[in-house]
Specification:
The complex is a heterodimer. By secondary structure, chain A is α+β, with helices and mostly antiparallel strands. Chain A contains seven helices and 27 strands. In chain A, strands 14-11-12-13-26-25-24-18-22 form a nine-stranded antiparallel sheet. An eight-stranded antiparallel sheet of chain A has the order 6-2-3-4-17-16-15-10. In chain A, helix 1 packs antiparallel against helix 2, helix 3 packs antiparallel against helix 4 and helix 6 packs antiparallel against helix 7. Chain A is elongated and about 75 Å long. Chain B has three domains: about 190 residues, Histidine kinase-like ATPase, C-terminal domain (Heat Shock Protein 90, 2-Layer Sandwich); about 120 residues, Ribosomal Protein S5, domain 2, CATH 3.30.230.10; about 280 residues, formyl-coa transferase, domain 3. The radius of gyration of chain B is 34 Å and the shape is elongated. Chains A and B meet through helix 1, helix 2, helix 4, helix 7 and strand 27 of A and helix 12, helix 13 and strand 22 of B. The complex binds adenosine-5'-triphosphate and magnesium ion.
């Protein structure tokens, strides 16, 4: 194999690749990226066995096709620190020669056949969605998923589609985020729902280029896999098996009190009210009345905070505690200037809504 | 078969049976006789033992003596000079009161008393051979009393068979004499075994006498206690937690000068040391309690070692609060090297000030050979040993060769901007200030963001998880005020400078300790803050576990855990403490119930509370292996000051070891110059 690569394009590919390789693996091959040069294209692949990421780099000149496995950390560092516009990579037996104007790195490769086979992405897409829309959906849900719950379904985001709409739902058992978005074309086939691991969605989010939010992302959901095609990259991931909790049931329908406020102002009020909360007293007390909202927090070590927040409130007075972090999380990702918070009682969930595309259920804290 | 007849026992037999209760072994004889000497006001008591007391016990005192006419009465049962009216029994101020001891001893041995009062011209002697009492005869002797007991149990072979070898019996005697001596510092005690002096305690102060109870090297590690309420006076010495031992060997309890055993007081003592010593270890303590005689019944046990208090709760409370407060108010940090020297050793002071001067001296040249990094921060010119982590390193640029350096040095401070090829330094404290810097990744949702957990969470993928080298340079801080808090070793231990040396801290144990104390304090103000769950978390449970759950439900509620039976073999958690957010509620409750089922839980309210808090603190605390940023280290150490007793984690393991300069000097053999 012999290729000459544009350094910038290769670097972009490798920067994302680092997130796809295993972090803890005894197998050296899994700490590598696979390079395959053929048909005027260099394919860079990484996998952690749960998911696999392939990036097709065509800013290359292929002098001799071939394949190799290079340790991603070393390779990435070499490309990152390089001062050249182009880098040449040549494989000789088990050694890769990576050369720049003034540099020559000989890097030992791993046997190519130790790299696991990566499933192909051939069929027609089930769902097509604009990159920008998918990015928003991911941002509005991923934060509420659990990080490493033993309830596996919590560690992913439920994706389901019906007609021209796709819905993403996530929960960690304490709050639940639900975001809806439009598909480019109505899904013709009946698409069931699938729980996609957080890591896959994080990568998809990274792969969606901020300058090309219009570009369409194709998604395929097959039995136990999901495939994404984003620009010059494809990502395939196994799905999370298990039952997603019946989320429809937990979205409160009996809320008879409603606050409406400016998103940024409410966010600021909560952040300030939370300034004196501590690890074991996180909660912020919220007293809603016609006169608005009073937020208080108290910690025996630090002191007390009171914020008077003028806002519109309909319904009977109510006092409820929330983990401010849970509210902050959601207020950071809503993309409308106004939000509403619906409540029923101190021990019942609150419901944050922004427009018709996003809702968020948050369980209260017993203070 | 002939029908057994009921017979009246002979007086001699009655005494021998009674003696069995008072006199179990030679040490019991010594106890009774020394008590008599003390009651007689002696200021000098000598105990001479031969063959572990089997052949001879001789007690010599310089007390008031016994009138010759009273001598026969001394051996008589129920004859005492110490109770004159029936009322006296309820306000006993002397050691003896039953008038039983000498009679009992006389019944099972050959005894002789030689006694002379201050006014008497001569001494008188009397014998008691297995109950047969001779007439008093004139004899030679000084003022005071000598009592000799020979051939103990010669007439009760069964009892004699139960005695151990002379060595063991003597060690009991020795302990007994020590127990008695501790509460009588003004009395000189001497103990001899086979004519060799084994104990020689001149009259001295209380503290000094109490310390005689412990090995020499315990002495520096004790605290004095002394409190009184309206009627109770509690004083004594308690050992630092590190002196706790698997047996109660160094525990001595006294009530009105009498050595006692009392489960109540032992419990109070154990409670006071809770979390400071490993379970199953007995703290070293000598406690003396003085209460008005009418508030206690000492006559519940033949050897008077057990007592009954009128208001036991009050004594328990006083002991617990006094000892605990003393411990809380003291530096309990154990010493990494057992210290044998007096803390104020002049040589040590000298070394200390020399070292202090050394560090105060301005360096000869700004470019100290210790600093290898040419790009060192300008601030470090005046402090060449120190690269202060609070000064952010220069922002790396894309092509700069330092880039790699910084990446490996501060892996936990770095986050990579998505898709970019540069590294930026993330602020050490997350933008949302309410998240504690100690909160491990994922626990504080304020800092949780989808992007934040990308590369930064697994720095090892690029730097192999190397130790940040630059932190190592913090060790020689020049100015205590700006000293970096500590260096982290193996992502598990913190090493920090202390006034007189250095401390090594187990980060998990310390954090656990801090959380435990904070929780304990928090609990007293009401139930723990708890987060309701969206959907009850169910878990499978056995019938026994569910019964247990019902039983401990009220306590769990106080701790912010709402859990209940959900079906015949299912339990469910509805709410869970906010600060345990990282944990799986159902898993926690399940584990708790499993422990309960295996009878690993003490279900008494107070014990259970501590155990659940222990469990919570342990699980919520940072773990060994968690890398900490300098800010996090600082926060942890700052809270160390806030939390009392932080030198031991709740399981009783120490959180902190101390190496004094003295210890270091010794280890480096520098003490000579
Ligand atoms: N060493 C002594 N010096 C002076 N008097 C003594 C001495 N030993 C014993 N006596 C006298 O002998 C009496 C009987 O002693 P004994 O030990 O049998 O009874 P007690 O001390 O009164 O009560 P107890 O059975 O509880 O010890 C004492 O009351 C005391 O008057
Ligand atoms: Mg007596």
């Amino acid at each position: 194999m012999k290729v000459i690569c544009n350094r910038g394009a290769l670097l972009n590919a490798l920067a994302v690749m680092g997130n796809a390789v295993s972090t803890r693996t005894p197998k050296p091959a899994l700490l590598c990226v696979k390079l395959s040069a053929q048909n005027d294209q260099l394919t860079v692949t990484a996998t952690d066995l749960e998911l696999a990421l392939e990036i097709f780099d065509n800013q290359v000149e292929i002098n001799q096709p071939g394949e190799c496995l290079l340790p991603v950390d070393k390779f990435y560092s070499i490309v990152r620190e390089s001062i050249d516009d182009t880098i040449s990579i040549e494989i000789e037996n088990t050694t890769a020669h990576i050369k720049g104007r003034d540099s020559h790195f000989k890097v030992f490769t791993q046997p190519v056949d130790e790299f696991p086979p990566i499933p192909e992405f051939t069929d027609k897409a089930d769902l097509q969605i604009q990159g920008g829309v998918l990015k928003r959906l991911i941002n509005q849900t991923l934060f509420a998923a659990a990080k490493e719950s033993s309830r596996y379904a919590f560690n992913g985001v439920l994706v389901s589609a019906a007609g021209k709409k796709v819905t993403l739902v996530s929960t960690d058992g304490r709050r639940l985020a639900l975001a809806k978005g439009d598909l480019v074309t109505a899904s013709d086939k009946k698409v069931g729902s699938a729980i996609i691991p957080c890591k896959a969605l994080q990568l998809v989010d990274k792969l969606i280029d901020n300058d090309q939010l219009e570009e369409v992302v194709s998604i395929q959901i097959r039995e136990n896999r999901v495939n994404f095609k984003v620009g010059n990259a494809t990502l395939t991931s196994s799905l999370i098996e298990g039952q997603f909790p019946p989320y429809e049931d937990v979205i409160p329908k009996d809320a008879d009190k409603k606050m409406s406020a400016n998103t940024a102002e409410f966010l600021s009020a909560i952040k300030r009210a939370a300034l004196l909360s501590t690890e074991e007293s996180k909660g912020v007390r919220m007293q809603f009345s016609k006169n608005g909202l009073i937020l208080t927090s108290r910690s025996p070590e630090a002191g007390e905070a009171t914020i008077n927040f003028p806002c519109k409130f309909e319904g009977d007075d109510v006092e409820i505690g929330f983990n401010p972090a849970f509210l902050v999380d959601t207020l950071k990702v809503v993309n409308s200037d106004e939000i509403s918070l619906e409540l029923s009682a101190a021990n019942r969930p609150g419901l944050v809504k922004s427009g018709s595309d996003f809702l968020y259920v948050i369980m209260p804290v017993n203070l | 078969m002939a029908l057994p007849r009921i017979l009246q026992l002979s007086a001699g037999l009655i005494n021998r049976i009674a003696a069995g209760e008072v006199i179990e072994r030679p040490a019991s004889v010594v106890k009774e006789l020394v008590e008599n000497a003390l009651d007689a006001g002696a200021s000098q008591i000598t105990v001479e033992i031969e063959d572990g007391g089997l052949s001879l016990i001789r007690i010599i005192d310089n007390g008031c003596g016994i009138e010759s006419s009273d001598l026969p009465l001394a051996f008589a049962s129920h004859a005492t000079s110490k109770l004159t009216s029936d009322d006296d029994l309820f306000r006993i101020a002397t050691m003896g009161f039953r008038g039983e001891a000498l009679a009992s001893i006389g019944a099972v041995a050959q005894a002789r008393i030689v006694s002379r009062t201050a006014t008497s011209q001569a001494a008188w002697e009397i014998y008691n051979r297995g109950g047969a009492i001779s007439d008093p005869q004139a004899a030679a002797g000084n003022t005071g009393t000598i009592i000799e007991v020979r051939n103990l149990f010669y007439n009760t072979p069964a009892r004699r068979k139960f005695l151990r070898g002379p060595g063991t019996e003597f060690s009991h005697i020795s302990e007994m004499v020590m127990r008695l001596a501790l509460s009588w510092p003004a009395v000189a005690f001497k103990l001899l075994h086979n004519q060799r002096t084994t104990l020689d305690l001149p009259a001295t102060t209380t503290e000094d006498r109490l310390l005689a109870a412990w090995p020499q090297d315990f002495r520096a590690l004790h605290l004095n206690v002394d409190t009184r309420d309206a009627e109770i006076h509690l004083r004594g010495i308690i050992g630092l937690p590190e002196l706790a031992r698997p047996t109660a060997k160094y525990q001595f309890l006294y009530l009105n000068g009498r050595s006692i055993r009392d489960k109540f007081i032992i419990h109070a003592l154990r409670e006071a040391y809770r979390g400071l010593t490993e379970p199953g270890r007995h703290p070293a303590a000598v406690l003396m309690i003085d209460i008005p005689p009418h508030d206690v019944d000492v006559n519940v046990h033949p050897t008077k070692t057990e007592v009954r208090f009128r208001d036991g709760g009050r004594i328990h409370g006083l002991v617990l609060s006094t000892v605990r407060e003393k411990l809380l108010g003291s530096d309990l940090t154990p010493h990494a090297v057992a210290r044998r020297d007096q803390p104020d050793d002049p040589q040590r002071q000298d070394m200390r000030s020399r070292l202090a001067d050394f560090f105060r001296q301005p360096p000869a040249t700004p470019a100290s050979p210790l600093v290898e990094t040419p790009q060192a921060d300008p601030n470090s010119a005046s402090a060449p040993f120190l690269i202060n982590p609070s000064i952010p390193p220069p922002a790396p640029t894309t092509a700069a060769p330092f880039n790699q350096n910084h990446e490996t040095r501060y892996p936990s401070l770095l986050t990579r901007q998505p898709g970019a090829d540069t590294f930026v330094h993330a602020p050490a404290i997350t933008a949302a200030p309410s998240s504690s810097p100690l909160t491990p990744p994922g626990i504080s949702p304020l800092s949780d963001s989808t992007t934040g957990q990308s590369v930064a969470e697994k720095p090892q993928s690029f730097d192999g998880g190397q130790q940040p080298a630059s932190r190592m340079q913090n060790i020689a801080a020049t100015d205590a005020n700006v000293a970096p808090p500590a260096i982290q070793l193996h992502n598990s231990y913190l090493v920090a400078q202390a006034d007189d040396g250095l401390v090594i801290i187990d980060q998990h144990a310390l954090h656990e300790r801090i959380m435990y104390e904070e929780l304990l304090a928090r609990i007293s103000r009401g139930p723990l803050e708890s987060q309701r769950l969206l959907i009850p978390q169910t878990f499978p449970a056995s019938q026994r576990q569910l019964d247990l759950l019902e039983q401990i439900q009220p306590l769990l509620l106080k701790l912010g855990i709402e859990a209940e039976r959900f079906g015949p073999s299912t339990g469910a958690v509805q709410a869970f403490p906010t600060f345990l957010q990282r944990l799986e509620p159902a898993t926690f409750v399940q584990e708790l119930l499993e422990r309960g089922e295996q009878e690993l839980l003490d279900l008494h309210e107070e014990e259970l509370l501590h155990e659940v808090l222990d469990m919570m603190a342990c699980k919520a605390a940072i773990k060994a292996g968690d890398p900490l940023s300098p800010t996090e280290i600082e926060a942890l150490l700052a809270r160390r000051e806030l939390v009392e007793r932080s030198s031991n984690c709740p399981h009783g393991r120490p959180t902190t070891l101390r190496l004094s300069l003295r210890d270091l000097e010794k280890q480096f053999k520098r003490t000579g110059f």
